[in-house]
Amino acid sequence: MASLLRSLAEEIETGKQEVRSTHMKRDFITNRLPPHSQEDLLTPSGRIPALGDTVCLMHKDHMVITVEPSQERTDEASEMVVFVLHSLKNQRENHMMGESGDEEEEEDISRGLQFPLSHLQALLQLQKAEQQLTVDQLQLPTEEEKCSLVLALWSESLLEVL
After folding, report:
1. Where does the ROXA-like winged helix domain lie (predicted)?
2. All domains of the chain, ordered by start, with CATH?
């Protein structure tokens, strides 16, 4: 057993084996975490966020930010992208059930967003903020990117405009 663990550790250190913590986070947040209990909070409410608005992330305990290779199938090398995954739309009927035929139906249910890697700092800034931020304080180069980011988060009920 000890030699098996040593060889596994060696493969991980040399890069022959990859640790799949991101896959585990994705599985936990989309399948294992119980669904959010307040149905009325699952649709965006309030006004659409604008550049001068003060915003804050909601449901931080029900979301995770990961950096993964793009899931788009291309012949080129995989580009790294940022995923914001959440459990707000998990369904109690399917919670931890893992039926094999459910995969086609689940793809219709949005459980997250995909952003370019350049958006990572702004997402972490929102996630770690102890107080509210204005949209124009986000660490993104253009106003359009800032507005696009907050609109996407708001549309998934992950952002509140104050």
Report:
1. 24-123
2. 2-161 (3.90.930.40)
